[in-house]
Amino acid sequence: MRGHGGDEVPHYLEQVPDFSWCMGTEGKDGYRCLPSANIYTIIFGLACIVAGLLVSAILSFMESKRNKKEDVGSSTEDGAKGASMDENLKTASDEFERQSYARAS
Hints:
The protein is mainly alpha-helical. 56% of the residues lie in helices and 8% in strands. It is built from 2 helices and 2 strands; from the N terminus they run E-E-H-H.
């Protein structure tokens, strides 16, 4: 293939033939075509959506497995749930205040 001025154009710069996706009957009203650039954009957008949904599903699955492990690890010997973090902090705070008051007296 020859370029401007008769120079040889490398094969990787040659124009790839475009395609169109047409709907309707040619020559009638309502005949419309989508050029290849629009089709590539639509395919890219759909691929991004599918990839996002796939990553979301994988992360949800991993989170649910992690929560199940935490639930099993936090139960006490009789099967009841252990004290929550807020209850532990409140208990520690009350104990600290009692000891501070006892030292001050």
